[in-house]
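User: Please fill in residues for this 157-position structure.
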């Protein structure tokens, strides 16, 4: 962690892969839409913002990569409705554009990410995280790189 914030947030739950641009701040709207601070997708300066990755390609019978909106958008829960007969409160959704989205994997639902951290070797140099996301393709679990990118920031020493 740096004074500017976190470089990378990794989460799962959804059964697909997607990645945001570096984000800093949020819009003053109902959904608090994250604001992209930069749009580079191969080498990302994380002093500008935090990159978020959804890595949910570990396996499921119901992958979610076929549920993406085109053009990119998202549904955001903004409230819950009144209880139904079973006492459950249904979510209230708002659909909005996804200007924060950098990359998503529509073609393959299964995969994993590999990370290589280099803290740098000299004062004033850069710390980097090299990330490669691999698709699992074929019946024998063959791998194919989907994307690679680098997160970097100056060392604080």
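Assistant: Residues filled in for all 157 positions:
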């Amino acid at each position: 962690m740096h004074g500017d914030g976190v470089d990378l947030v990794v989460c799962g739950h959804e059964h697909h892969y997607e990645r945001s641009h570096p984000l800093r701040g949020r819009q003053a709207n109902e959904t608090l839409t994250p604001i992209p601070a930069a749009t580079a997708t191969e080498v990302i300066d994380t002093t500008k913002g935090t990159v978020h990755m959804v890595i949910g390609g570990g396996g499921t019978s119901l992958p979610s990569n076929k549920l993406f909106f085109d053009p990119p958008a998202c549904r955001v829960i903004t409230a819950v409705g009144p209880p139904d007969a079973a006492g459950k409160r249904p979510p209230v959704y708002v659909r909005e554009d996804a200007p924060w989205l950098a990359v998503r994997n529509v073609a393959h639902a299964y995969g994993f990410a590999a990370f290589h951290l280099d803290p740098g070797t000299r004062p004033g140099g850069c710390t980097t995280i090299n990330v490669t996301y691999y698709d699992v393709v074929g019946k024998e679990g063959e791998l194919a790189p989907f994307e690679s990118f680098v997160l970097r920031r100056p060392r604080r020493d």
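For context: Residues 70 and 97 are 10 Å apart (CA to CA).
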